[in-house]
Amino acid sequence: MSSSSSFSPANDAVMRNRILSTNLYFDIPPFKVPLIYSNSYDVSFLGIEKLHPFDSSKWGRICRFLVSFGVLDKKCIVEPLEASKDDLLVVHSESYLNSLKESSNVAKIIEVPPVAFFPNCLVQHKVLFPFRKQVGGTILAAKLAKERGWAINVGGGFHHCSAEKGGGFCAYADISLCIHFAFVQLNISRVMIIDLDAHQGNGHEMDFADDSRVYILDMYNPGIYPLDYEARNYINQKVEVKSGTRTEEYLQKLDEALEVAGRRFNPELLVYNAGTDILEGDPLGRLKISPDGIALRDEKVFRFAREKNIPIVMLTSGGYMKSSARVIADSIVNLEKKCLIETRGNPKTA
């Protein structure tokens, strides 16, 4: 059954009230850049986070690179608030959130078995709190994108989590939450998700299975996790890239896909899940895209949004090599060089 069934008219008023009473949407001063990050994003848990291939300090390293390159002033970064239980209940059920109070369930979701043996208060503080801060960042990013034309959450993109089920290092459905908040708070009625992480975005696919307001373009390796064949039925535009696909072929497929997506759907907001696990050498993505190829990929998506005048939210999502942080930072520098974003001085407000 699709978890989108939880978004019934009966729940609609409660959901709207939760969204309208949130603290996650707040006004950002003009001198701040629509780049969202908090030191709390980084997961550090007695070293056991190293048992998962994900680089859980990636987010902080991206920002440090950008500051050291001179393209970003630390004082201009936007710090989000933590998503509260009421915020999370906009998409998640009470029973799912309660399941996260069992350390063994969290251990399964983040794929680090020893976490099962830690007291849940520690797991909440060391693992789930950083994730909730990132969820707050993704939700806020839509508001900032609407105001400024673009926003980057240096985190988020937990695309394997749906309303009722976490997995693949994703405990909360930040993409689904971001979109539901945008529907109500920003009066937006059409959203496109462009998911270019190497893995299929089965979480948001299940959540928006029957929702014609959301158009999903998912370009993924069909031979790797999550192998969710039911969720594949809900992808509006499926682009499968097999293990070993190289940069030139990948970018050509992306060009064709964007052209088709632009003809089929006219969104008012674009959520771009920009995983770097397509990078050559990534142990989980199994694709062979060069660092320059990733910068070009991001440039193509931002140009697509710019030419159609669509506000764009970028999330960093998966990437399982230490080199990912530098690749993302270099890509952001490239977006600035190509005048697709503005990370210095007073950004123009829309």
From TrEMBL:
Known cofactor(s): Zn(2+)
Main location: nucleus
Domain of life: Eukaryota
Catalysed reaction, written as an equation: N(6)-acetyl-L-lysyl-[histone] + H2O = L-lysyl-[histone] + acetate
Cellular localisation: Nucleus
GO (cellular component) term, any one: histone deacetylase complex
CDD domains, per database record: HDAC_classIV (cd09993)
InterPro entries: HDAC_classIV, HDACs, His_deacetylse_dom, His_deacetylse_dom_sf, Ureohydrolase_dom_sf
Keyword tags: Chromatin regulator, Hydrolase, Nucleus, Repressor, Transcription, Transcription regulation
Domain Histone deacetylase: 52-333
Function as written in the Swiss-Prot or TrEMBL entry: Responsible for the deacetylation of lysine residues on the N-terminal part of the core histones (H2A, H2B, H3 and H4). Histone deacetylation gives a tag for epigenetic repression and plays an important role in transcriptional regulation, cell cycle progression and developmental events. Histone deacetylases act via the formation of large multiprotein complexes.
UniProt name for this protein: histone deacetylase
